[in-house]
Write a structure and sequence with these properties.
The structure is a single chain. It contains two helices and 51 strands. It is mainly beta. Among the domains are: 114 residues, no CATH class; 97 residues, Immunoglobulin-like. Strands 28, 29, 30, 31, 32 and 33 form a six-stranded antiparallel sheet that branches. A five-stranded mixed sheet has the order 6-13-12-8-9, with no helix packed on it. The radius of gyration is 37 Å and the shape is elongated. The N terminus is likely disordered.
């Protein structure tokens, strides 16, 4: 017989199907069998309604007595203790919750109420996640969104329980919750081509305190990047040799002059995706400005330094704004700021030189930006500093600064490195890297300028060109506990070309150091070269990046990395009488990709040759250089970015 609809309004839960009941829309319950229903202890009102409907149906079919006699029969009275046929007492459906369990955790824990089985509170669950599970091509700056099946207890939605994982590491970010939806926004862009896991632990509960049945996990991967070219119109006299980049992808640009005059100077932040930055002027009342220097910290701090009408100045960028007034670092043109650096802790260091024979001194701020009164002497008076400083920091804020110097006492040119430690809060006197001194017969210009890379752990590697012409690439490994090891040869003899203007480049890719330099191969063809160094394994065989379609001249190869296994090699080649072209090659998961021209990478032969590439931990890469007109005047700043 087709079941009849009962009006058991208070019963809005389901009973196990094998026991005769099924929850329907609106909480209504359908009787599969009236006899089974009443015989299994369903409440008396429902039993009455069911039996009455059944009796009416039987009477209409001519199978029973008069309708008026149904309610008073001894076999079917209204007493709650009365049973079905034969007056048997009603057996309870359950005596404990275990009698009601269907074994499906996702249905919630069934309960036994006055002998009847009731469905429990179904636990919450994730019903959707964005980006989708196993999806590819996610945007690196998109939020992670989790939608739950019901409202949650907000206090259970914590950053310890709802996380985005990069491998085993939790990605820093901001977690919010509202109306059954949890949203996670990473602090920085996600890494290009990387895979991430979204996890929710079982301690997340609904408003009634019911937790997830089991932890939730989903995975997705981020899209690859592409090159974007931007020209910023600006007539200027000169621009900073370095345009560094923060962890968010913002670039600090600095330049001076307006074409006809050397002052004032300007600094401008170019955010990722922004087209026209707003420059901030400095040295507005000066008439003689030198090219500025720029440096940034990974967390968005910045600093610039410049010389104007003799004295040198430095100005910091903190908490989203430039200082109201710069700090004067020197009182005359006899002393100038030669380098600038910002540590991961926000400590700004400026390196000052008075002349080639008066060494190097350093001043630094604390983490809040207050300049300290002491000055650290890196190289004493009498030591001739012959190169720019190459500076790097570990994740704890300890730093190393390397430079080439000539010691008149020994008549040797050598590589020297100063060490900054957070504990000592200062730069120590530089020490000579063992095995770096030039041959006595070599001139000071034959030893190449050093390039240094520092790993997050504090391990470091410094490389330079040996003192012979042509020479080999030399390198020394640094251990924070053991110091510098004796220098070793990293490339074939006579492979490194022209140390006077072509320095090496070095980066750390997360597991090993990679160095790059220009040189001739066995056929006397100019190529870009790379070699790797890994602690405990030593040096690898070098790789020649042969780009014969772009020769005859290869210059200034630079290698940068995101610190997670993705690296970019860029160099410039002569492509015409008045132009160079930039060439790129990517290293992904240990495999070199094809050699390709950099889109928009045309550089005037009259522009400054050395441009420094950058790559942050998200895989965003950048290069900047001046654009000149037919009169060799600077008319724009070209920014080339990969994101």
């Amino acid at each position: 017989m087709r079941g009849e609809h009962t009006e058991g309004g208070e019963m809005s839960v389901h009973k196990n199907r094998d026991k005769g009941w099924q929850r329907m829309a609106g909480g209504a319950v359908f009787a599969i069998s009236s006899a089974v229903a009443c015989g299994n202890g369903f409440n008396s009102e429902d039993c009455k309604a069911t039996r009455t409907c059944a009796a009416q149906a039987e009477a209409e079919a001519g199978q029973g007595g008069e309708p008026g006699n149904q309610g008073g029969s001894s076999a079917g009275g209204d007493s709650e203790s009365s049973g079905g046929a034969g007056g048997a007492p009603v057996e309870p459906e359950c005596t404990a919750a275990v009698d009601c369990s269907n074994g499906v955790a996702a249905d919630g824990a069934e309960v036994c109420v006055e002998g009847s089985c009731r469905a429990g509170d179904a636990p919450p669950r994730v019903v959707s996640v964005t980006p989708g599970h196993e999806s590819e091509g996610a945007e690196p700056d998109a939020p992670i969104v989790l939608e739950f099946s019901e409202a949650l207890n907000p206090e259970s939605v914590t950053s310890d329980c709802v996380q985005l994982l990069d491998g085993e590491a939790s990605v820093p970010g901001k977690l919010s919750y509202e109306d059954g939806v949890a949203t996670f926004l990473p602090d920085t862009r996600l890494r290009l081509r990387a895979s991430y896991d979204v996890v929710v632990c079982e301690t997340v509960t609904d408003e009634a305190g019911t937790p997830l049945v089991e932890p939730f996990q989903s995975t997705f991967s981020v899209r690859d990047g592409e090159w974007h070219s931007l020209d910023i119109p600006a007539e200027f006299y000169s621009m900073a040799a370095y345009s560094p980049m923060t962890a968010s992808g913002a670039i600090l640009l600095a330049w001076n002059g307006n074409g006809a005059q050397m002052c004032p100077g300007y600094a401008a932040w170019l955010e990722l995706g922004q087209e026209l930055p707003t420059p901030t002027p400095f040295a507005q009342d000066a008439t003689d400005c030198q090219a500025p220097i720029a440096a940034v910290g990974v967390n968005g701090q910045g600093a610039i330094a410049w010389a104007a009408d003799g004295p040198s100045y430095a100005q910091q960028y903190r908490l989203g704004a430039w200082e109201m007034k710069p700090t004067q670092a020197s009182t005359s043109s006899q002393s100038w700021i030669s380098a600038l650096a910002v540590s991961p802790l926000g400590v700004v260091s400026r390196f000052e030189r008075a002349s080639r024979v008066t060494g190097v001194r350093a001043s630094h701020t604390n983490a809040e930006g207050v300049w300290q009164t002491t000055r650290d002497e890196l190289a004493p008076v009498g030591i001739s500093v012959l190169s720019d400083l190459s500076i790097g920091f570990d994740e704890a804020g300890n730093g190393l600064a390397a430079f080439k110097a000539w010691d008149p006492k020994t008549d040797r040119t050598q590589i020297m490195v100063s060490r900054y430690t957070v504990e000592s809060d200062g730069w120590a006197s530089a020490e000579v890297v063992p095995g770096s001194a030039s041959d006595p017969s070599a001139t000071s210009n034959t030893l190449g300028a050093p390039a240094i890379a520092v790993a997050p752990s504090g391990e470091a590697l410094v490389v330079w060109r040996g003192s012979q012409i042509p020479g080999s690439l030399r390198g020394s490994h640094f251990d924070p506990d053991e110091g510098w090891f004796n220098a070793e040869t990293a490339s074939p003899t006579d492979n490194v070309f022209d140390a006077q203007y072509d320095t090496a480049s070095i980066t750390y890719d997360g597991s090993r150091f990679i160095a790059a330099w220009p040189g001739e191969n066995a056929d006397y063809v100019m190529v870009a070269n790379t070699v790797t160094y890994q602690s405990g394994k030593g040096w690898s065989s070098h790789v020649e990046h042969d780009a014969e379609q772009y020769v005859p001249k290869i210059e200034y190869p630079q290698i940068v990395s995101d610190g997670h296994g993705s690296s970019l090699l860029v160099w410039r080649t002569l492509t015409g009488n008045d132009t160079f072209g930039l060439v790129q090659r990517r290293l992904l998961n240990g495999v070199w990709g094809p050699i390709e021209p950099l889109p928009g990478g045309e550089v005037s032969i009259y522009a400054p040759a050395k441009r420094t590439a950058y790559m942050n931990a998200s895989g965003v890469a950048s290069l900047t250089w001046p654009v000149t007109d037919t009169q060799n005047k600077n008319v724009a700043i070209r920014v080339q970015r990969f994101y």
